[in-house]
Amino acid sequence: MRIIGTGSALPRKVVTNDDLSAFLDTSDEWIFPRTGIRSRHVISDEKLEDLAVDAARKALTDAGRLPEEIDLFLCSNVVNEYLTPGLGCIVAAKVGLNCPCIDINCACPGFIYSMDIVETYFMAGKVKNVLVVCAEEPTRMTSWQDRSTCVLFGDGAGAAVFTEGNNVKGIRLNAQPDPDKIWQFRPLQPTPYVTKTETDVPLQMNGREVFRFAVTTSVRDIQEVLGRCGVKLEEVDHFLIHQANMRIVEGIRNRLGVPEDKFATNIVDHGNSSSASCPILLDECNRRGLFKPGDKLVFSAFGAGLLSAVALIEW
Ligand code: COA
Q1: Rounded to an integer, what distance in angstroms lies between the CA atom of residue 152 and that of residue 63?
Q2: Which domains does the chain show, CATH number per domain?
């Protein structure tokens, strides 16, 4: 398969580090050097599905495809206001898709997990045009009293359209199941038969261990995928790394020994938007005209699970 269109959409509200320090014991002096973040787009009165629809429509327009030409839709999402149906069905109804909708919850590497699933459908000859949308509102998961988590996140949606081709060179999905490192608990409806006490727990994260996991797994998996595909590090044109923390991106870049100009970033004014992060970055780079046909792109993402993934694709 190959990518023929991209799109993205961000909430209107921009929250700066200084805005946060008005109600939290934090500061731009603490946040920026440790994360690379100065501001983030935060859901206020928008609905996540509308951002997802906007990103999807832009990707379809960029690809020159009509909604009725899409024969599979994957939606990557951790949380939204509905428990059921999946966000994919809600978005599909608004976009006018008439195809199967699959929702996945693979946290931050959701875009690469989606690409792996979609590629399998192409290899089986079951599809001709596929839409992937990653839409996330992690700012609705954190406690806004918890300065160690809420400063890291931003919201948004990113999308890509795929058609037949031979441009996916290699993908590696990885799981190191360890749910205690990043988690959130949301109680279900009580019943007359549930006797345990259930309370809401906002997003919890062991920042240091997640940091270590991210750098280690990303470097190892990038080297493995490139080695398997017979591609040298210096032959890669662009590294699109999940925008979780600038220091994580820098840690990966330094260990690989790759020049800075091959690592596009947008974390400074986006923060971490979970699975939407990679496709938003992809769309912004695409619209800036950064990619030439034949360029080699490496994606790498990591997050709750702990899950991680790397993909090598040709533009
Ligand atoms: N403002 C001011 N102080 C803060 C703060 C904030 N926003 N957040 C934490 N602190 C304080 C802590 O309370 C702690 O204070 P103490 O020493 O008095 O207890 C101190 O800063 C150090 O906290 P620590 O958690 O050890 O900092 P750190 O250097 O590990 O940086 C992260 C914290 C979260 C920035 C870092 O661990 C990280 O980015 N991890 C990866 C997280 C991530 O990307 N997760 C998503 C992956 S998908």
Answers
A1: 32
A2: 2-165 (3.40.47.10), 170-314 (3.40.47.10)
